[in-house]
Amino acid sequence: MASNGVGNGEFSFDNKRRSGLPKIQTQKTDDENAVCHDDSATPVKAQTLDELHSLQKKKSAPTTPIKSPHVFGVAVSEEERQKQQLQSISASLASLTRETGPKVVKGDPARQAETPKVQQPTHHHHTPALNISDSGLKFTHILYNLSPAELYEQAIKYEKGSFITSSGALATLSGAKTGRSPRDKRVVRDETTEEDLWWGKGSPNIEMDEQTFLINRERAVDYLCSLEKVFVNDQFLNWDPNNRIKVRIVSARAYHSLFMHNMCIRPTPEELEDFGTPDFTIYNAGQFPCNRYTHYMTSSTSIDINLARREMVILGTQYAGEMKKGLFGVMHYLMPKRQILSLHSGCNMGKEGDVALFFGLSGTGKTTLSTDHNRYLIGDDEHCWSNHGVSNIEGGCYAKCIDLSREKEPDIWNAIKFGTVLENVVFEEYTREVDYTDKSVTENTRAAYPIEYIPNAKIPCVGPHPKNVILLACDAFGVLPPVSKLNLAQTMYHFISGYTALVAGTEDGIKEPTATFSACFGAAFIMLHPTKYAAMLAEKMQKHGATGWLVNTGWSGGSYGSGSRIKLAYTRKIIDAIHSGALLNAEYKKTEVFGLEIPTELEGVPSEILDPVNTWPDKKAHKDTLLKLGGLFRKNFEVFTNYKIGTDSNLTEEILAAGPNF
């Protein structure tokens, strides 16, 4: 505001600008062509709000040209194709006691103006409908292969505990179960599986009969058909086009649908056109419990696989990992039948096309070491090795999030964005920023995202035959060398053993190492006897000239408590030397007890740590601990000793001889 000073210290306002606001110019400007920058535009064409909303969305053209499918040379109309697709879904949801499946219609019931009328066949004489039921009168709405954006909307609108985090990911809750329930998993034992599968001591396969499976299937299907809407995903497993499997997932939650959208391979619109009948179907009725009075049930949770029917039923758990790992188990059965080896491993590829497989249990550094910015990621968890090379089974990654930081795991951190499912994480109420250190819900917090969210992922996720097979162990006893070169028999022995040592607290609070063995580095998921997978691995390694390595990412200079963890920088140098081939040219010597070949020197790694005995101040303690671990390996292997590979027991004896010798 302008003011004039007056001599006596008073102020007087300038009368010309008394209002204190500049005068608005209303005269015509000199510039005849000046553009008026207001927001005026012609009014919308819509007459009602509904019409306006319909203008907002447009039908997008498919990204791939759609071939018109032909049945016996006759082009099928879009309407007919939609009808066939719905018939296929209805057949999937059919009860086994009623002749037909439910009446199904596509789309969200909340947006349906009215339920479509069903054309009744005209009969000349009246037939009383004896088997009609309430469920037979209603429609089940099918939400088919929805996009992530649509699934976000469904989750936020209808599923409590669904939120968008500050990075754009969808935070969800899996209910009471925040991990897998291996004791509640059942496999149907019938003529198909009696001979093929591994049953009995040490096996993850707990049996059930066909009748009990059908009771649980009926319960799941009845539950899903009683809902107003169900989610259906039609997707693929295995990036190898010659050996991919078509899977259909029927679920009741947007969270489950988005999880599987990320974890399985996403079909193009063209591939969906020709999808047809799935090879395997999952019925996820996880919100509904199984009946405890049903034979073989030990809790209200049951995960049941029927390999003859190619079906899986989930009752009483909403943990999404059950679907992922259930399908992995199925691949462990289907693939070896085609002479393809299914593997619980990470896999990456160098710029020269050299592929490495990484095996290791939780905490061994499998994810950290297979994620390498100088190499392409083929996959982080599940792979197949066929006559063509390796292929990822999945279309996504399922990463642990506990204590995740941008510094330590930048790729995973940056992958947690729009489209990613965040399971059971805790976030700040106002900003929605996730606190990855918070274990309030569970320690098993997870992120599921499409593999293309990783910048150096190789798409399609396939590669040539592996050059190196790396077995990772975190040896908290501190007696395994940082790296050893394995012969074929040793590779089989250590692959079947699947060793790592966890550091677990004892009752009086003292922490000490506990040996953990998981056959084939994934005992919970294998279907056949471990020696069958080991024999296939050895055969493929021999045929394609791959080298086996045992890498210890655990302790050196003493067990946990007295020694220290081998530096990650040293382990990375070892892995780099394996990839480059430099380690093949090193000088080697043999260790006692385990008989491992260890290099005498390696660039970038102190020579004294390469042989564990050098780093232990107490040599007797070293020898005692080494013998103790050797004894644990032997005891674990007893389960496998009475098993012949085919009719030949020589191979089993050869594997046994490759173990600790004392």
From TrEMBL:
A molecular function (GO) term: ATP binding
Pathway recorded for this protein: Carbohydrate biosynthesis; gluconeogenesis
Catalytic activity: oxaloacetate + ATP = phosphoenolpyruvate + ADP + CO2
UniProt EC number: 4.1.1.49
Keyword Aminoacyl-tRNA synthetase included in the entry's annotation: no
Cellular compartments annotated: Cytoplasm
Presence of the UniProt keyword S-adenosyl-L-methionine in the record: no
Keywords, sorted A to Z: ATP-binding, Cytoplasm, Lyase, Nucleotide-binding
Signal peptide (UniProt feature, chain positions): none
Chain residue ranges for the region called Disordered: 1-42, 93-131
Biased composition (Basic and acidic residues): 28-40
Record GO biological process: gluconeogenesis
InterPro entries, per the entry: PEP_carboxykinase_ATP, PEP_carboxykinase_C, PEP_carboxykinase_N, PEPCK_ATP_CS
Primary location group: cytoplasm
Enzyme superclass (EC): lyase
CC annotations in GO: cytosol
Similarity comment: Belongs to the phosphoenolpyruvate carboxykinase (ATP) family.
UniProt protein name: phosphoenolpyruvate carboxykinase (ATP)
Originating organism: Anisodus tanguticus
